Amino acid sequence: MKVSGGKPFISLEAYINSIKNQKVSLSEKASRSKNASEDQVILSPKAEEIQKAKQQLQSIPEVDTERIARIKRELAEGTYKIDGKKVAEKTLRDSMLNEILLDESPEQD
Known about the structure:
Layout: H1 8-36, H2 45-59, H3 65-77, H4 84-104
């Protein structure tokens, strides 16, 4: 069997070059379109306020180290007092909130 048509590698090289050129032209188009129209986000005053509040909340530590130190000290000294009424109120409040949230949550099948 004889392969005719001259040098087959020339066709392969031409094909590879055309693919490279397509890639280059696509990347040029992408960079031109990025430069031509950059997206902008403009936040409403309410959204800016929410972002500021979020940043302030993130700066507050989750753990109140002073309160923990005070409670540890009072426990060690035997002077820590537990207010049963506050415990009961918070327990009932949390229970009621959980009930409300569970009633309002979408049903899952």
